[in-house]
Design brief:
By secondary structure, the chain is mainly α. Helices cover about 45% and strands about 0% of the residues. It has helices spanning about 5-10, 15-25, 30-35, 45-50, 80-90, 100-105, 125-135, 140-150, 170-185, 190-205, 235-250, 260-265, 295-315; strands at about 270-275, 295. The relative contact order is 0.10.
Length: about 325
Amino acid sequence: MIDTSLSDWLLDSDPALRWQVERDLLDVDEDTWQETRKWVPAEGFGRELLSRQDADGQWAGGAYFPADFRGEGPQPWTATTWALNELREWGVPASALEGTAAQLVPVKWEYEDMPYWGGEVDVCINAMTLSNGLWLGADVDEIVDWFLDHQLDDGGWNCEWVDGSTVASFHSTLNALIGLLEYQVRTGDAERVAAARARGEKYLLRRELFRRLSTGEPFYSRVFSFAHPRRAYYNVLAAADYFRAAADADGASPDSRMSEAIRSQRQSDGTWLQGHRLDGDVWFHVDVPTGEPSKWVTLQATRVLKWWDSTQSAQ
């Protein structure tokens, strides 16, 4: 159990975060957290982002980039895919976007005008599209086949395969695994993706979730910087949270290699700080600036450690 002052601080938040605190940290009954979740599309972050949707079902007039983006400056986070990611992760029901899946059928990706629900050539984009399509009821089944066909020999994936990369990326591999796990959870078809997920998980675990095999050094300067929103970028907290969800879905024992690294960043009051904030336009910020106590990061880190500690005490 977390202490009252920490739980009160976490609960004093948008319903998009509050219902997850109730479910994942406080173990309240389902009727209670579902009642909180009902408010996500009706107020706060959910209502505000839904109000920004265009009449054609998009946000900012584009699939991955806003329609007026010309490639100058940092990546904006206002286009359709990023908006759908947030609404889904906040727990907005698909019914709140009734008709959106059909509206997006004629939408094209900025890359070679590929059809929106057919996916693109980028692993991370396809992982998001798979999760969003499953949530909204779009036909994204072929994207699962695409992942199975594009897994690399080392067990992972790399968004730069199209440019000739033959070794996997931590970023791409984690996002691919998240999308495939979402497919398994929503369809119940574990058998179709079991082997691919196992190989991808082995890729990360062999590297202890952060090390280069060649040197043993961290592969990335921000691997221990826990940021929200993380967008498509890797950090060990996001990886550990994936393994928590995967263990729950598979009924498996946990295999977390980074529990102490996560624990070491906990502040004396039980919070975790925002590691960094990505540049780029947003509709509005949903978390604090760099260096301040983050409710979103604290939720995720506390959830991971609660899972990890409970499994250790049971052994």
